[in-house]
Amino acid sequence: MYAVGVDIGGTKIAAGVVDEDGTILAKTRRSTSPDDVASIDRAIAEVYEEFRGDYEIGAIGVAAAGFVSNDRTTVLFAPNIAWRDYPVGEKVRALIGEDVRVVVENDANAAGWGEFRFGSAKDATDMLMLTLGTGLGGAVVVDGRLVRGRWGVATEVGHMRVVPGGHYCGCGHQGCWEQYASGSALVRDARAAAVAMPDRAAALLALAGGDHDAITGPQVTSAAQAGDPLARDLFADLGRWVGEGAASVAALLDPELIVLGGGVADAGELLFPSVRAGFERELSARGHRPEARIVAAALGNDAGMVGAADLARVD
Amino acid sequence: MYAVGVDIGGTKIAAGVVDEDGTILAKTRRSTSPDDVASIDRAIAEVYEEFRGDYEIGAIGVAAAGFVSNDRTTVLFAPNIAWRDYPVGEKVRALIGEDVRVVVENDANAAGWGEFRFGSAKDATDMLMLTLGTGLGGAVVVDGRLVRGRWGVATEVGHMRVVPGGHYCGCGHQGCWEQYASGSALVRDARAAAVAMPDRAAALLALAGGDHDAITGPQVTSAAQAGDPLARDLFADLGRWVGEGAASVAALLDPELIVLGGGVADAGELLFPSVRAGFERELSARGHRPEARIVAAALGNDAGMVGAADLARVD
Amino acid sequence: MYAVGVDIGGTKIAAGVVDEDGTILAKTRRSTSPDDVASIDRAIAEVYEEFRGDYEIGAIGVAAAGFVSNDRTTVLFAPNIAWRDYPVGEKVRALIGEDVRVVVENDANAAGWGEFRFGSAKDATDMLMLTLGTGLGGAVVVDGRLVRGRWGVATEVGHMRVVPGGHYCGCGHQGCWEQYASGSALVRDARAAAVAMPDRAAALLALAGGDHDAITGPQVTSAAQAGDPLARDLFADLGRWVGEGAASVAALLDPELIVLGGGVADAGELLFPSVRAGFERELSARGHRPEARIVAAALGNDAGMVGAADLARVD
Amino acid sequence: MYAVGVDIGGTKIAAGVVDEDGTILAKTRRSTSPDDVASIDRAIAEVYEEFRGDYEIGAIGVAAAGFVSNDRTTVLFAPNIAWRDYPVGEKVRALIGEDVRVVVENDANAAGWGEFRFGSAKDATDMLMLTLGTGLGGAVVVDGRLVRGRWGVATEVGHMRVVPGGHYCGCGHQGCWEQYASGSALVRDARAAAVAMPDRAAALLALAGGDHDAITGPQVTSAAQAGDPLARDLFADLGRWVGEGAASVAALLDPELIVLGGGVADAGELLFPSVRAGFERELSARGHRPEARIVAAALGNDAGMVGAADLARVD
């Protein structure tokens, strides 16, 4: 059975027809408005119409950045799109006019499920996925099942507290993991280093035209790839926080695999060695237990689409 | 079907016949030696013999403080008993001489399962149990299933790191949760307060004969119950760490219920208000989500026996 | 002998004739431009001309926010005024056309000296003054002598590190004391509390028109004075950081008096009890040593003017 | 004028005749008992008798580990010797039977003064000395004068708090600098590393006979000198804490020279580079100010004797 996976972004959706092996057979896109939620419903209906002529579609899976109701039909709250208790499934079905199954899933969960079923974790039973983008998201699979939590809001990994009294987070709390393990943290630290240690930050400042507030994530990556010691240290620090935090999650959940995705994880060897070193240094009961492997995500931006499609089909 | 639940302590075992409703129909005890693991096998076989005349026993569940193999037959490692890759199930069956099912389970998992099935969480589907004793243990149930992890060593909650560079733990790491949320932490903090603030610690010092190193947990409890401000603050601090750490776990797992057990939790109202306040203050996305309730365990010391028996039967 | 004390602000100067008892006999003001440092020289010369007809002036003391050279003639660097290695003394003398003594002093040092000689610390020999404004400044007197340091840049108390890896400071470092003990810290914490705990912050949010980013320091003070629990807690936290940090300075310098000045210190009883509690709790070797008293500054905004005049006169 | 300098240890005293250039002309020792304070008085009187035949002695300076009264005649409290408000000067004079000047000084102050007058800081006016032994002591000279504080208990540098909620100290507080920057801290961290990372600690464990609790400071030094990566990291961490803490003191006092003494400082190049790196990284307003140099103490164990003699003479 084919399913359509839809990945909802801020100003566009990406959709694809996905088969039972996780292969994307066709892809398309539509522009949408984050303030006009009906525009999103229409776009989903349109892509369904576009695909149904060529493929027999059994279900639509929608990956959305937000809290999703337990029955996976409604977005309860989304930070960047105007969904508030919005029954996406019902709305889309009404536009389509037939009884196709529409399942909504948190986007990080969908991406994690994609990796679990068809990507880096396809041979695993217990996985922690961490998505390092602007913030820090993730997904957890325990014994083959996606963890959604009692009310569907599990796996807010980025808001686990790792430093009491630490950096303030946009959520109003202090010391959230994503303040230490995300692209935003990388840029903030780079800018501060440029103020405190302008000599050491000369390469970064040159890339940013001399203005520490203009330093960007891609500049840090570029400097690090060119061997700049400060930029490399910034990635190593970031990696350390990823790995050390992952060790705490591993103490709780004992996963066999930790998958790192998101744009920051593309830094690859700038990041992974320090992630592994931080994880090993902080893992409880080392030597008395097997250790999770830490690997890169395999599906890139398609993970959400593929995972959403599969979740719509299999459960 | 009846099952025998066996709770293995350092120098004795407690065993009981448990029915399918979690009711203990009979109880007994045997002395054992932690250095002579065969003495534990014999004691288990003896209690089985004692019970089998009066009850039809279908399975034996053994709750053991240690890492247990995935197939739940073998203790891989125990900190306080000389088990090293020790096949408890096979040894006991050999002594009994018949093919009764023997299932070994981590003791915190067994106690958590007892509370989940028959105690404070019997109406819940997703639970975090925290056991506040000398150290900090726990158990997690997700969507009705006990989380054991890929290699059976999940739910080492006490070794999640809550303070980078914090107090050293016996495990060699720093900042483990149990260094802030356990009876040992309470006593350590009480003693330090008595050194730094002898005036404020006058009541505690009086109970300890004037020697700060002689302050004990029961003395702190007693002083707190009598209204001593320092002792009450010590419990409030402890509760705060329990609640704040639980908020991080809730960000990850979204449980509906947090159950507090163990001897320290008996402090009741000295502890629970600050646990709840700490949890609420640190819970991510408050107001956009339902919140877990925080309740006391109901089964006391029987939880492990009841849970082990049930786990032996049902899975 | 009379001396003129001049307090340099961002857009104006305040000047006064000060006698040897620290009494201000006359006061005046001039507007200036922070980008036109000559405008400041001219304003100082003008106020001198204004006063000299009525008073016999022996010296001019200039209090300036910035690093001052060892010989107290030159501002090496100022964050908010365009002084860079600027010989204020020489420039003013050239305008005046006579050989009056012109002494430049760091403004926090001048204010501290004013309090030491004529204000709250006039009977003390060893003082720590902390000025709680937007940031955290201070002054130290050891055995009757103002501590300027080897290169004149001592008493940057606000940039002592109190939390490794703590809040970022405008200086590029992390965990500077002024990120925890200043008016800016108070407002930042109030805004974050309003995001994380909107219910608890209802009173503050009402004052700020519902926008957490619009919360101001005076609103927090006003809410605290009206008894709002959150606002009172915010002041108590601030006071705790002031007192705990002061305990570290006291371990180093053993002052007899700690004087709190600056706008935030006007909060008085909202602040002082928690400052004292924090100081007492963290003071090393309590019980084996006398303890510094913690008092409010007495001279208000005149402290800098009076202190600068006195420093110009007495050396 | 010659003076006798006496360095009081736990079970012996060392004394010497010191000239005005800080040269030791003669040395001797006596055994004493820490519980019998009169034995110390007698030993001081004896060494004076021994020296007076050959040298014209004008004063006796006594360096004592403890709090000393403002008039420098009395030890108020000592942690390791049974002095409690004990008038050492008067007692010694009574034994000697003549009116020689006897001046008592805190031992860290005496050693710091020795370095300031005749050792590494002899060309400086403003010095911070840090003595890295079992604990962390120090001395401060501001503008050529030793800082004793209002009540003589200044420069308890080891008990400045550098980590809120950090490691417990014997003083009952948490996060004292000496818990991070001392020989005890080095050993504690080495032992913990051996528990958490036995593979990485193989060299250290081999030196300690396989028992992590048997690891000593000299073993860590020896392993570090032989290039062991863990031992080198432990020294680097220690150095970092020394340097970062020194940066906070420098923000307060602006010294021109930081002198490192004590047994741990003998580690030399294992320690100093990371001290300097930590200092530079955390120093406030770098680039806008000259920076203190960081150098090794020059006088070794004689510093206290020489300094005490000089302090007895000059003031």
From TrEMBL, chains A, B, C, D:
Source organism per UniProt: Luteimicrobium xylanilyticum
Molecular function terms from GO: ATP binding; glucokinase activity
CDD domains for the chain: ASKHA_NBD_ROK_SgGLK-like
Family: Belongs to the ROK (NagC/XylR) family.
EC top class, as a word: transferase
Protein's UniProt name: Glucokinase
Alphabetized InterPro entries for the sequence: ATPase_NBD (IPR043129), ROK (IPR000600), ROK_cs (IPR049874), ROK_glcA (IPR004654)
One Pfam family hit: ROK
